[in-house]
């Protein structure tokens, strides 16, 4: 495939701005202030994280699912996704973090893997036209060559680079919407 062909087709693919809009929707559902106020209340933090999960899935057109568990996954693993049944496991220490984008990033990343799975199974359509079909082929190859801990098998695996890009866009959108909200609040303070 020539570089020009890829560049042309790539414009049809969902990009950073699409992911940013998803993050803005999450910020409307679970504002940073709500997360902050739930400090020291693990049940409330879990409820808010489940709301983030639902907001991400709804924005991506994924069927709503409560197949989500917060567990001890060890000191380094943040999340895991089951290709078999689409369930998510998220490290429970992320709920203790005062930065809500820590858990949001992992939820977005793992839910993006569910989106890949449903698109590859033909249960969701890829919005990218011809380029979308090429991306599906890349994901299929990526899953076949999945080798955790290796550079090509994991770090540069197409399913991982896609999930990382989606998650960082969602987090960017979350903070952008939060910053706008704070700016509006301080403007109305000044008017008083
Ligand atoms: Zn991943």
What does this structure look like?
It is a single chain. With 192 residues, the protein is mostly helical. The chain contains eight helices and three strands; from the N terminus they run ααααβββαααα. The protein has one domain. Bound molecules: zinc ion (ZN). Zinc ion binds next to helix 5 and helix 8.
Summarize the structure.
The chain has 192 residues and is mainly alpha-helical. The chain contains 8 helices and 3 strands; from the N terminus they run H-H-H-H-E-E-E-H-H-H-H.
Layout: helices, strands, pairs:
Elements: H1 3-10, H2 16-29, H3 32-37, H4 42-59, E1 68-71, E2 79-81, E3 88-91, H5 100-120, H6 129-144, H7 151-155, H8 158-191
Parallel strand pairs: 1-3
Antiparallel strand pairs: 2-3
Helix pairs in contact: 2-4, 2-8, 4-5, 5-8
The structure holds zinc ion.
Give a quick set of tags describing it.
three-stranded mixed β-sheet, 8 helices, 3 strands, 64% helix, binds zinc ion
> What radius of gyration results from the CA coordinates?
18 Å
Strand order of the largest sheet: 1-3-2
Q: From N to C, what is the helix and strand string?
A: HHHHEEEHHHH
Structural class per helix/strand content?
A: mainly alpha
- Ligand set: zinc ion
- Helix run count: 8
> In this structure, how is the largest beta sheet organized?
3 strands, mixed
Instruction: Give the overall average pLDDT.
Output: 91
Unreliable parts: none
Helix content: 55-70%
Give the distance, in angstroms, between the N- and C-terminal Cα atoms: 60 Å
- Total count of strands: 3
Using the alpha-carbon principal axes, give the shape. Answer: globular
**Beta strand %:** 5-15%
Q: How many independent structural domains?
A: 1
């Amino acid at each position: 495939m020539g570089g020009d062909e890829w560049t042309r087709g790539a414009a049809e693919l969902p990009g950073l701005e699409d992911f940013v809009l998803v993050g803005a929707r999450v910020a409307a559902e679970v504002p940073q202030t709500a997360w902050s106020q739930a400090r020291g209340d693990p049940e409330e933090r879990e409820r808010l994280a489940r709301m983030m999960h639902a907001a991400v899935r709804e924005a991506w057109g994924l069927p709503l699912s409560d197949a989500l568990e917060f567990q001890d996954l060890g000191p380094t693993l943040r999340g895991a996704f089951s290709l078999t049944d689409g369930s998510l496991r998220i490290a429970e220490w992320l709920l203790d973090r005062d930065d809500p984008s820590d858990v949001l990033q992992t939820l977005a990343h793992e839910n993006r893997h569910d989106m890949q799975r449903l698109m590859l199974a033909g249960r969701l359509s890829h919005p990218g036209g011809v380029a979308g079909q090429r991306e599906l082929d890349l994901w299929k190859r990526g899953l076949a060559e999945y080798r955790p801990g290796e550079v090509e098998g994991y770090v540069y695996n197409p399913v991982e680079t896609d999930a990382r890009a989606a998650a960082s866009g969602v987090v960017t959108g979350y903070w952008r919407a939060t910053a706008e909200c704070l700016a509006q609040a301080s403007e109305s303070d000044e008017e008083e």
